[in-house]
Amino acid sequence: VAHSSQTFGWALIYLSVTVSCVSDSSVKRQRHENDSRASLTQAASWSNERQLMIDRQIRGRSVQDPRVLAAMRAVPRHRFVPSQLQKDAYADTPLPIGFDQTISQ
């Protein structure tokens, strides 16, 4: 009986460790999927902001060269400004990027 009880105890420990590992893995996977979705949503938002900047600001100033427009569409301005200014990265205003320099409007 003692052997059976000890085996049962070890089985419970094994089971709880296994469930814990599987559960932790599942939580991490879900967190990663949520982060990936949020990242894709943010990337789409930045892309939309870039396109609006091109349509309203760049073309509004009669810039029509397809190479210039393609370059403006390709450059992720929000990556070149301090994080606290990223929300304004595509606004029609110069933004400081450090060393007394700005991204011009």
UniProtKB/TrEMBL annotation:
Pfam family, one: PCMT
Gene3D superfamilies the record matches: Vaccinia Virus protein VP39
Protein name: Protein-L-isoaspartate O-methyltransferase
Organism: marine metagenome
Taxonomic placement: unclassified sequences, metagenomes, ecological metagenomes
